[in-house]
Amino acid sequence: MNDEKLKSQIGANIALYRKNAGLTQAGLAAKLNYSDKAISKWERGESIPDVITLLTLAEQFEITVNDLLADPNALPEDGDPGKLEKAMSHVSEKALKRKANKNVILALSSTLVWFVALLIFVVISSFDIPYSWLSFLYAVPVNAIVLLSLRSAWHDFRWNRWLISAIAWGFLIAIHASLLVLLKFNMWRMFLLGIPGEIAIMLWFRLFRPSREDKKEADE
Q1: Alpha-carbon distance 7 to 21, whole Å?
Q2: How many whole angstroms separate alpha carbon 109 and alpha carbon 88?
Q3: Mean pLDDT value of segment 81-85
Q4: What CA–CA distance (Å, rounded) separates 129 from 135?
Q5: How confident is the model at residue 66 (pLDDT cuts 50, 70, 90)?
Q6: How many Cα atoms occupy the beta-carbon half-sphere of 39 within 13 Å?
Q7: pTM of the complete model
Q8: Distances, alpha carbon 139 to alpha carbons 44, 91, 95, 208, in Å
Q9: pLDDT per residue over 139-181, tens digit each?
Q10: Residue 132 three-state SS
């Protein structure tokens, strides 16, 4: 094991047991006669306490030094229900945090798309150019493209069918509106293209949907 990984493991364990003990970094620092900055460096894995301090920490948390050195993401091998529950709780908390971070990224990405659409609207309308509101129509499929790209990169394909449909129909509506207001050209027949397109999207995702037999085999 390299030094950086060991520092990271010790830091994560100190943070975990400190929070379980209901202590702040300042509170733990006061008990150890250290500064809260030192505690913060330990928990970030920038440095590690000496052997005597590790023993003191273990006594403070009523654990062993090995518990401070262990991988915080590893499940306990002795089958202790209490330790197993804590380990699973820790893993669940990390998974929920990752999910929350992804949702924040998705929200920020959507906000950026609509901010750009609003910026285009403000700039164009400032020059008294008509139909500047079209920027908002194009923002719908562009936003769907951004969300589709991010979710695909994260291997989360649950909403891909609806996002692809939003892209197709969004562009059809935006292009039709542009032709109608700019060129006075009513191209309503282009919406007919969306019908076979939607059928193709539905069949494509149905092709890769697991059958009942596959689900039954997976359950067994």
Answers
A1: 21
A2: 32
A3: 52
A4: 12
A5: confident
A6: 21
A7: 0.54
A8: 40, 37, 31, 29
A9: 999 999 999 999 888 888 888 899 999 999 999 999 999 999 9
A10: coil
